[in-house]
Structures are given as C-alpha cells and as structure tokens.
Amino acid sequence: MKTNSNITQKLDAIAKPSKWIEESNFRLENKERLRYSQKVAVIILRTLREKGIKQKDLAEILDVSPQTVNKWVKGSENFTLDTIVKLNKALSISIFSQLENIEEQQYTESTKKIIPVKTEPKVISLYAQEEWSEELMEN
After folding, report:
1. Is 50 within 8 Å of 98 (Cβ atoms)?
2. Is 37 in contact with 75 (CB distance < 8 Å)?
3. pLDDT tens digits for range 43-97
4. Within-domain flag for 14
5. pTM value > 0.85
6. Structure confidence by residue, pLDDT tens digits, 57-67
7. Domain hosting residue 63, numbered range
8. Sign of torsion, CA 99 101 53 49?
9. Quick check: is 131 in a domain?
10. Is 114 helix (H, G, I), strand (E, B) or coil?
C-alpha cells in the first residue's frame, strides 16, 4: 500500500512550479507597454482584414516565421522601431499616426461629460389629471 508521502514525492517530482506570480508582476510592471502592444496588434489585425491579407502572407512578405506574426497579433510583443517600419511598408500604413488617432479618440471619449438638463416641473391641475386618466382608461 502506497503512503501519502510516496504519492506526494512523486507528484512533487513531476509537478512544474506555477509561474503565475511572476507573470502577474510582469504584467503590472509592463502595463503601459503592453497596452501599446495590444493597440498595435489591433491595428495590424484590422489592416490585414481590410486588405484581405493572411498572417501567413504577411510573414512571407516580411521574411519572418508565421509564429512571429502570431506573437505580434496577440499583443504581447515588444515591437522594435525596425519592426514597426517594416510593418508600415508592408501594409502601407502608418502605425504611429493610427496610434495617435486611437489615443485622441480615447481621450475624447473619456472627457465627455453628461450635463444634467434642468427642466421646469410640469404643473398639472387636478382637473387635467382626471381628464388624462380618463383618456388612458378609454384607450
């Protein structure tokens, strides 16, 4: 009969330690950079869809592996200027100007304020309320 300690030892030998704490800390430390990477990924995906280009085709154009393009569109890649320039040329776009447009749009949406409109209270006479109630009852 196997004891619990034997089972625990076997599980410890095959179990991989979880890296969720390190991954969480990485995301917190690189939050702003990751947001920009995600925005660039959206720009790339949108452009590919609009132009009818597949990720595999983009990989061939840029002479990179399809896995590299896949990492780009996942939004976790730290883009170099060289990569951005190559993407601009390959897709005939300007990633920086599109990022600027996204930033402006987000700023505009975040600064919109709802201004309450004051209206005059409606005074309805008791007689008018009775007529209105009767009309509703008839219909």
Report:
1. no
2. yes
3. 999 999 999 999 999 999 999 999 999 999 998 888 999 999 999 999 999 999 9
4. no
5. no
6. 999 999 999 99
7. 19-112
8. positive
9. no
10. coil
Q: How far apart are CA 14 and CA 11, in angstroms?
A: 5
Q: Is 13 a domain residue? A: no
Which CATH number do you get for residue 100? 1.10.260.40
- Residue 81 within any structural domain of the chain: yes
> Identity (one letter) of the amino acid at 82?
D
pLDDT of residue 111: 67
| Distance between CA atoms of residues 68 and 80, nearest Å | 13
- Are 50 and 113 within 8 A, CB to CB? no
Question: Residue 123 corresponds to which tokens in the numbers above?
Answer: 């005074």
User: Do residues 119 and 80 lie in contact, with contact meaning Cβ atoms separated by under 8 Å?
Assistant: no
Do 132 and 124 form a contact (C-beta atoms < 8 A)? yes
Cβ–Cβ < 8 Å for 24, 79: no
Report how many domains make up the chain.
1
In 21-52, which positions are buried (b, 16+ CB within 10 angstroms) versus exposed (e)? Answer: eeeeeeeeeeeeebeebebbbebbeebbeeee
Q: Reduced to 3 states, what is the DSSP secondary structure of residue 106?
A: helix
Residue-level pLDDT at 7: 85
